[in-house]
Amino acid sequence: MLLLTDPKDKETVLAVYLDQRWWPVEDVVKTADPSRDGLISVQTFRERIVLFVLNYIIFGMLEGSSANDAFFLPHSATECAKILWRNGEAVAFYSVKMKGSLCDGTTSQCYMLPVLDTIFVRRKYRRGGLGMKMLHDFCQSFMAEDALGISCPISAAMYQVCQKFLQTYPEEQKRLWEVEAPGDWSQRANIWLKIQMESSPSGSKTIHLISPEAEVGSRMETTQTSKPRQSDVEQMYKVQ
To answer: Region entry Disordered: which residue ranges (predicted)?
Structure first.
């Protein structure tokens, strides 16, 4: 894809070349289709272009200037993602690593649970509940799953979204985990438990493990494949 950048600032993208003409970045993420409203799955080639522009250009170059912002790699051609449309404009997106999909192109390991991998809301639309909306949609999309993941590390801003979400939907507190790929039980930390521990005066700031064989606050080097007993998970919710 050809990008036209500002000669005085190569990080500032002015236009994108599509359909044999140059388009201002803001025009690429707009639509005249009134049916595009709310969260819509990315399926067509043009929708993949919008996702690329939102992720790589708007977030990666134009709006992701904060030192606290994460950096997202461009999504693959088969990435499962949804774009949030509002008033004819693409304003946010999130992507998911599906259960059973390969972690990357250099390993045979597959994700052991659905994982919310990237999520972004444009600056002018933040503080409007869109992060909550996308997190809720993610959870509702996988109602049959006992566990859902969010890619590690989770930013401070995303932790705030998670805290508000889990307070609003307490039924999701036992289902949402911070995970490292591929997401076995030694690579998961319950997000609600971490929030509770970090808000406690004597709470630990790094809770990595939920496996019953592991010590809280440490990271296991070997792979665990056995699922913790339900009684162990229930017991951890009693920690204050």
So the answer is: 212-240
Domain that holds residue 187: 2-199
Euclidean distance between CA atoms 147 and 191, whole angstroms: 11
Task: With a cut of 70, list the residues of the chain below it in pLDDT.
Answer: 64-75, 200-240
207-235 tens-digit pLDDT: 333 222 222 222 222 333 334 434 334 43
Three-class SS state of 192? helix
CATH of residue 93 = 3.40.630.30
Confirm whether 209 is domain-assigned.
no
One-letter identity of residue 33: D
Cβ 121 vs Cβ 131: under 8 Å? yes
Q: Which residues pair with 120 in a beta bridge?
A: 93
What counts of helices (H) and strands (E) characterise the chain? Answer: 6, 10
Q: What pLDDT was estimated at residue 64?
A: 66
Distance (Å, rounded) from C-alpha 105 to C-alpha 194? 31
pLDDT for 215 equals 27
Residue 211 maps to a domain:
no
Q: Is residue 146 part of a domain?
A: yes
Residue 204 lies in a domain: no
> Number of structural domains, the chain?
1
What's the predicted TM-score (pTM) here? Answer: 0.76
